[in-house]
Amino acid sequence: MRLSVIGCGYLGAVHAAAMASIGHEVVGIDIDPRKIEALARGEAPFFEPGLQEILAEGVASGRLTFTSDIAAAEGAAVHFVGVGTPQLQGGHAADLSHVNAAFESLLPHVREGDVVAGKSTVPVGTAAELAPRVEAVGATLVWNPEFLREGWAVQDTIDPDRLVTGVPSTPAGERAAQVLREVYHPAVAKGTPFIVTDYATAELVKVAANAFLATKISFINAMAEIAEVTGADVTQLADAIGHDVRIGRRFLGAGIGFGGGCLPKDIRAFAARAEELGRGESVSFLREVDAINLRRRERAVQLVVDALDGSVFDKKVAVLGAAFKPFSDDVRDSPALHAAVRLHGLGAHVVVTDPQAIENARRVQPQLNYEPDRDATIRDADAVLMVTEWDEYRRELTPEHASALTVGRVVVDGRNGLDAAAWRAAGWRYYGMGRP
Ligand code: UDX
Fold first, then answer.
1. Range of the domain at 258
2. Which of 325, 333, 334 to mutate to test the pocket of ligand 1 (most atoms within 8 A of CB)?
3. Residue of 18, 130, 224, 262 with catalytic role
4. Are residues 26 and 175 in the same domain?
5. Are 293 and 221 in contact (CB under 8 A)?
């Protein structure tokens, strides 16, 4: 099929390349010429495992093209809109200006019978508002949220857990759902659940999923706070409750909390939308989820301060990690970077390392010192703070190796990813999150 993808950020670039890799003819469109130039050369504009390969392959095959000319959308049977919905400046709601601008520029190029598929994460009610404009040109709007995780984005797009498509309850809506089944034929053929809903449900599925995941993380982090005043170990607690299949161990990793381009802004936008709908109290717990999450960043900083006898002033603190999670170079709302900035503000000599995210981190926090080499980062450090659980730090850095480099023997494990017993046995003062 011929497809267009409007917006070539994280979601759009991966979607375009993934759709080409399953045999479609795809044009990716974005207003940012630098992004388009890189993509057109077959170069991934951000770090995402597997993307580079399918991008280069798609571009070389001629099935995948990129342009900043929106008129190139003409002739596609399905137009995916995957532009960003960041947090509004000075508020918690989602900023829909990119979505509105994308529809505005796309609609003159949409033909009768086309399907326009919204993929952006939007406040519930957005699709119903946009639908009449799409219907006015004889096309059908569907809402088709994505659930991709950074680091697994290619796999999550080609082989998702489920596909959700919100459609209008009309014959055109039914036809549009069928078109989407054809778009995702490999996943549909292997029996991936394909759930057809109304617009509101489809929009809500996305934010509800993210709200649930965020709540699960903050739940275990709340238990970590209780563990901290009782001497309990939250990692053992998580293992024990996680054996109950109704609970499950995944997303019960207590630590410095969640960040990234989705969970933080999505729960805030959800709470803001619920307020608008007069149901603020229904999701008021999300404010607590957010607050617990932000407290964990402060806790990690406090552990470093306490371990260095109450002051980090003029002490060298090596910060292992800048990305909001491993296998990503994304530093948006990164707890790791947040902690580094706070320590810098307290007068510490902070050196940050990360296998992928240094460039992005430097752009947003230029005042910090960055060092690509892990060992140079920890050399002469008074304390080591591990905040992104890359294998380079979690598995490959042994306490014996670190002992030969640092001045102090203080390690704060912001992700509960290090082997506490091994570090202690090597003479280190080990501090975990929610652990004795
Ligand atoms: C998330 C959702 O998982 C995905 O379905 C949605 O489409 C977009 O948002 P992503 O932002 O890539 O994906 O990250 P995810 O893997 O969910 O992790 C989010 C944050 O939670 C990270 O900062 C991670 O370190 C943290 N986390 C995760 C924990 O602190 N503990 C855990 O147990 C799991």
1. 214-432
2. 325
3. 262
4. yes
5. yes
